[in-house]
Design a protein that fits this description.
The chain is of the alpha+beta class. Helices cover 17% and strands 32% of the residues. The chain contains 4 helices and 12 strands. Strands 1, 2, 3, 4, 5, 6, 9, 10, 11 and 12 form a 10-stranded mixed sheet that branches. Strands 7-8 form a two-stranded antiparallel ribbon. A hairpin with an 8-residue loop joins strand 3 and strand 4.
Length: 222
Amino acid sequence: MIIYQDERLVAVAKPSGCSVIMDRIRAEEPLADQVGRLIGTRALVVHRLDRGASGLVIFAKDAATHRALNDMFAARAIHKSYLVAVSGRVESDGVVDRPLRVFGSGRVGVCPADDPRAKPSLSRYRILGLGSDASLLQVEPSTGRRHQIRVHLYSIGHPVLGDNRYGSPRPVGGALRLMLHAWRLGFDLEGRGYSLCAPPGDDFVRLAEARGLKMDPNFWPA
């Protein structure tokens, strides 16, 4: 589970189906508590991943690091890269620059820029592989809105495989998990550079390859 740790932070690989913080609906131990037990001190939550997603999550070990990392996420000073398997063949690399807003149901959607609740949102993507009816993308969000990657890709006609909220029929493509993986995080923290990576797990690889998306472990673009 632990990818990296030092005196200030710990980075872990979250499995799909695990909540980062306490889930009011499901009686399960959240990832933050699991990590706290492993490192022997409280793991302070800096950011989250959707329950169905997998991949890199970092936790702070002290209040000062927690504040610094929170400020960096807010300032978009952390470079994030995701692996995402989507429905359909994506024709070319591209950018989705569409404002998002949260609706009363908790669902997120694109909206006009003049909507008072609109939040500017931008995601860049490039094609890593194509199957007969699916695509493997590297997605780099410049902003960190709720469900941003899922909604942006759905808005261009390529919902994330396994998504139970955005796209139809659900789960999209009949995938058994959300095919969204937090792959890389890069940032500088008080003079120290961090470049962290969590390759996708076997469950992601198996489902991707079942859709004709080759997942060669030696092929991981920098």
